[in-house]
Amino acid sequence: MNKLTLLLLAVLLSGFSVYAQDSLKNKAAVQTLKEDFKDDWAALSHYVEENKQLGEPKPGEKRVVFLGSSIFERWKVLVPEFFNDRPYLDRGISGQISPQLLIRFRQDVIDLKPKAVVILAGSNDIAGNTGHVTNERIMDNIKSMVELAKLHQIKVILCAYLPVFDYPWRKGLEPAPKIIALNKLIKAYSAENDLTLLDYFTPLVDERNGQKAELTIDGVHPNVAGYKIMAAVTEQAIKKTLK
Question: Are residues 101 and 216 in the same domain?
Fold first, then answer.
């Protein structure tokens, strides 16, 4: 074998070695690539596994789904016993606005086959960073959820939102009058459509139209005492709805 042949063979072997190393690197990169959820704007992935494990309602089971944002999500963390011994399914996701709840409505409400749904929506829309949200648009999303529920024989409990004087993370928005105005629309719509109104505003409100200091963590989210008050009025609303 002459020197030229040996040189060509060495070049070929070197090239093959580089190719093999690159192939291994590419395989490793594929294996470590994380799934991208940026297209999941409504966070449908949040409860997908929990929903799969749930199964069909048992005979006689009167499921109630709580659909909302951080108010509901924190409830099961601070007072888990409220949900543990009842057929209540908490489907709150912190920070969500009403169009996200609407997108989740099929997966996190309809497909779970509840007897009733408690819808708490609007505050995060009002606290949002954009200037395009109006109470009318919030109501459009609420109305769409109600219509979907009725189509699937799910009874609806609409919530008058909790009082908020100011958002700690978005100061100066003056949300109190906006929430009061939204609650008036929710109350009127509930009456017009024979829906149960669950009033979280009245038992928690102080003289500034914010939450009573002894019932809240930050002026927006209730503490354990606040949730106990919410639990009492919620049970009354559910009993009335499912009678």
Answer: yes
